Amino acid sequence: MAPGLVRVALRRTLRDVKYVEAVRPRHARGAVREVYRQVERDFGILAPPVALHSAAPEVLAAAWVLLRESLVAGGSTTRAEREVVASAVSAANSCPYCVEVHGMALGALGDAGTAAAIGAGEPATIADPRTRALAAWSRGAGPLPPAVPAGAAAELAAVAVAFHYLNRVVSVFLGPSPLPGNVPPSAREKAKAVLGFFLKPGKPPVAGLSLPLLPPSATDGPGWAVPGGTADDAFARVGAAFEAAGERVLSPRVRDLVRREVKAWDGRPPGLSRAWVSDALTELPASERPAGRFALLVAKAAYQVDAGAVAAVRREWTDDRDLVEAASWAAFTAANELGGRLPVRP
């Protein structure tokens, strides 16, 4: 399968985005068109986890800045190290789509064994001790590997925050696999091998070139970032964009509830029961409970978001933009909290 055909096939998977309609490349205009152009130039493909945000152009730009400036752009860490973090965080968040994508990328970079161990839920079996320690750190289960300088630690923390965010929106809006649904089971391994080769990164693009997509922020960047660095600036802009999105669509009571629930949360998936959501919602007026339920599920158990939870908020949020903005705010609120807990010193 030629790279051009892979690109076309992945563009067609935009039709599989759930609950909202992603803007097709041929219909993209203005800010959406500029983000799409950068994504295909720097990431190689129009990644559905980015394009699913296209109903909300500012949030689309924030999602791309988040991904580009953490995983894709050049820095002091290798792309393979970043892919280990992306894969380990995705596995911890039970996001099979992201585990598959970044496992393929790791395999293309020559570390299929690590990808297989993470994908199988057995990161302790990773052969290389440093890589094993990095995977454990990504899940909040250990310190950074020895001799990691502050700049490298910040880059790895940026990847972890980005994938805590992306895992959540992917779990809501996409299916379990990046491969088109019409790929027969007998051809899936070959298709994955081709896609993995296509995902193999080349020379990393220059850091910071996506920042003009978002206005500068008056607030400081996250505590793990190097002050004045690209990630510091990028995550400050991204955080401001997501916060503005939440303010447009979610009430102050809902946002306060989600922040408190996430702050008190130990980060472990709550399981299959949703009793915890109903208990948390009792303080909200009845009119705000559907929005509160949706935002809490996205933040703490995105895999529990189903058609019923979406239908309940669609009575108020008739525009795709509203749903995307609410999901993005809740996902980033959780990601920012969990990423801030990672130890960024060896």
Distinctive features:
single chain; 346 residues; mainly alpha; AhpD-like; 3 domains; 16 helices; globular; CMD-like; peroxidase; Alkylhydroperoxidase; peroxiredoxin activity
Question: How would you describe the overall organization of this protein?
Answer:
The chain is an all-alpha fold. It folds into 3 domains: 3-73, no CATH class; 79-199, AhpD-like (Up-down Bundle), CATH 1.20.1290.10; 234-340, no CATH class. It has helices spanning 3-12, 30-42, 48-51, 57-72, 79-92, 96-108, 112-119, 129-138, 150-173, 188-199, 230-249, 252-264, 275-281, 289-301, 307-314, 320-340. The model has no long low-confidence stretch (mean pLDDT 91). It is built from 16 helices and no strands. The longest helix has 24 residues, at 150-173. Helices cover 60% and strands 0% of the residues. The radius of gyration is 19 Å and the shape is globular. Residues 60-136 form the Carboxymuconolactone decarboxylase-like domain. This is Alkylhydroperoxidase. It holds the Pfam family CMD. GO terms for molecular function: peroxiredoxin activity. InterPro entries: AhpD-like (IPR029032), AhpD_core (IPR004675), CMD-like (IPR003779).
As a percent range, the share of helical residues equals 55-70%
Number of helices: 16
Total separate domains: 3
The gross shape turns out to be globular
Distance, first to last CA: 44 Å
Element order, helices and strands?
HHHHHHHHHHHHHHHH
Structural class: mainly alpha
- Report the radius of gyration as a whole number of Å: 19 Å
Q: What is the CATH topology classification name of the largest domain?
A: AhpD-like
Hey, roughly how much beta strand do the residues contain?
Answer: under 5%
Instruction: Please state the second-level CATH architecture of the largest domain.
Output: Up-down Bundle
Mean pLDDT level: 91
List how many beta strands DSSP finds: 0
The level 1 CATH classification of the largest domain is: Mainly Alpha
Biggest beta-sheet profile: none
Low-confidence stretches: none
CATH superfamily of the largest domain: AhpD-like
